[in-house]
Amino acid sequence: MADKKMVEEITSMDVDFAQWYTDVVKKAELIDYTSVKGCMVIKPAGYALWELIQKHLDQRFKEAGVENVYLPMFIPESLLQKEKDHVEGFAPEVAWVTHGGLQPLQERLCVRPTSETLFCDFYKNDIHSYRDLPRVYNQWCSVVRWEKETRPFLRSREFLWQEGHTAHATEEEALERTIQMLNVYADFCEEVLAIPVIKGQKTDKEKFAGAVATYTIEALMHDGKALQSGTSHNFGDGFAKAFGIQFADKDNTLKYVHQTSWGLSTRIIGAIIMVHGDNEGLVLPPKVAPVQVCIVPIQQKKEGVLDKAYELRDRLNCHFRVKVDDSDKSPGWKFAEAEMRGYPLRVEIGPKDIEAGKCVICRRDTRQKVEVALEELEAKVEELLEIMHHDMLERARSHRDAHTYTAANMDEFVQIFNEKGGFVKAMWCGNEECEVQIKERLSVTSRCIPFEQEQIADTCVCCGKPAKKMVYWGRAY
RNA sequence: CGGCGCGUGGCUCAGCUUGGUAGAGCGCGGCGUUCGGGACGCCGAGGUCGCAGGUUCAAAUCCUGUCGCGCCGACCA
After folding, report:
1. What does the angle CA A468 – CA A469 – CA A475 come to, to the nearest 5 degrees?
2. If we measure between CA atoms, which residue out of A468, A419, A469, A408 comes closest to residue A442?
3. Res A84: pLDDT
4. A3: pLDDT confidence band, cut at 50, 70 and 90?
5. Helices H, strands E: what count in chain A?
6. CB of A189 within 8 A of CB of A195?
7. I need a surface site. Which of A45, A49, A115, A384 has the fewest CB within 10 A?
8. Bridging pattern class, strands A213-220 and A198-201
9. How far is the CA of A449 from the C1' of B12 (A)?
10. Tens digit of each residue's pLDDT (9 = 90 or more) over A373-409
11. Which nucleotide is at minimal CA–C1' distance from A155?
12. How far is the CA of A254 from the C1' of B73 (A)?
């Protein structure tokens, strides 16, 4: 009966991965749907996760010299129009404000889908001299893109993110910053979220509208699909010329600034779910888990049990995020609940333990239980959280490596995507036509041209002409 | 924007074919017994059946329209 019920709660990954994802998102109480399609309520469990992601990432930004600002959410249509590629890229999915109260507006306002144009408009007046450079600003905000197809975290019409926008005196400095921030994202993903990523450059077809070059970190989900998990763009002086952002350099000549932008969104929560989750529910990386240790009292009405549970909580509270589940539910219910919500460690404490001066700790990722003497609790919790992070990262890395293939020709390429999915490393001639063909035939896209290149073959996997680069290919979210 | 599906207590749904007193399970509140992997008993609260028209003595049910949500495709973080 118990087992049957659990099976009904969360659809198995192997049966229907999309349904599993939706079930986990709902059962772990990360979000709720609302009456507006593609707009979600991020509930306490989900928002606490985002806050911890923000905290860790923002700290890394500060160490990289980033300052936070806030710009408006409205962009006048004329401003959006200034950079041609940019407006063509975003126009199909912007939401427009046409009225203020009952009065039609003279010029309609778009709700920001991204803020390049606003930053440019601001920098135009803010930057006059080389002494004003560089500008390394970031904002935490929400943006709106009127997507047709929506999914919680992965593709919503409004989503939370941070967008960094920088302006530099030289091309070299801008490029350096682009790569620096990409590395911040990659390190953050591995060191904090336990998600291994591939770093590389987007092809021209896949790059950001208006960018000279887009760099990306790509992660592989449990179902073998890829997720672009963060991007960093080098704009060169394209936006500067479109917006007229000039400064007087040391030699007293007017020069255009070179710009970058980089972003990471709540989509990364989707990555956490799909990289680490299992059939019991969410598995949260210890460093961003809103609850790292959940204490479950057994026979909590017996004298002294709850007191002991609170005492352990108070001890652990100094170093970890802890909660006691002192609800009226049965222990079994609490175990399942803690697993669904992805709490990294669960401490079980009952009369037998108290008498023996110990407790039981259960790891979420492996569900292994160990008995621990109460006096060693803090040390053991710290050790287990550390090990869990390490193991989760290694498990995700092995999964990714085991689902990364090489294809020397189109037959191999097609066979892998028909039978397995995952990442495929294959050579590319550099021609967009080949990307289009591959996409039409297999709905596979180029994920990135990785920084770490290998020579898989001499010819393009698609057309057979001489190859220029090795590319990671995959089906993507 | 195309395809599919769905709107009935908080949730999941039954009821609709063949019109006639609005149901179940879970959840929720109270009391009691339980407690080491989703416990159980008793009592109780809770619904303008998405919305608008129409047909009818009578509509959750039939007809027309409309709005919304979910999933799958084309486009995107």
Report:
1. 130
2. A419
3. 87
4. very low
5. 15, 23
6. yes
7. A45
8. antiparallel
9. 46
10. 999 999 999 999 999 999 999 999 999 999 999 999 9
11. B77
12. 50
- Dig out the tokens for A432 from the structure: 């967009």
Within 183-202 of chain A, which residues have Cβ less than 7 Å from strand B? none
* In A330-382, beta strands by DSSP E: 345-349, 358-363, 369-373
**Using the CB atom, is residue A441 less than 7 Å from strand B?**
no
The pLDDT of residue A410 is 94
Place of tokens 């990722």: A365
A97-113: b (≥16 Cβ within 10 Å) or e = eeeeeeeeeeeebbbbb
End-to-end CA distance of chain A: 36
**Residue A326: strand, helix, or coil:** coil
Q: Which residue has the tokens 């930053």?
A: A119
Question: Cβ neighbours of residue A71 under 8 Å, at least 6 residues apart?
Answer: A112, A115, A118, A119, A122, A139, A141
In this prediction, the answer to ipTM > 0.90 reads: no
Do A464 and A434 meet the contact criterion of CB atoms below 8 Å apart? no
d(C-alpha A463, C-alpha A186), whole Å: 33
Q: If phi over 0 gives left and psi between -120 and 50 gives alpha, with beta otherwise, what is residue A269? A: alpha
Q: Is the CB of A340 under 7 A from strand B?
A: yes
Confirm if A125 and A143 have CB atoms less than 8 A apart: no
* Calpha distance A13→A242 (Å, rounded): 48
Residue with tokens 């080949």: A434
pLDDT value at residue A453: 97
Instruction: Round and report the angstrom distance from CA (A338) to C1' (B75).
Output: 38
List all nucleotides in chain B with at least one atom under 7 A from a protein Cβ.
Answer: 1-2, 34-40, 68-77
**Measuring CA to CA, which residue among A210, A183, A221 is closest to residue A87?**
A210
* Contact between residue A61 and residue A184 where contact means Cβ atoms under 8 Å apart: yes
Strand partners, A388: none
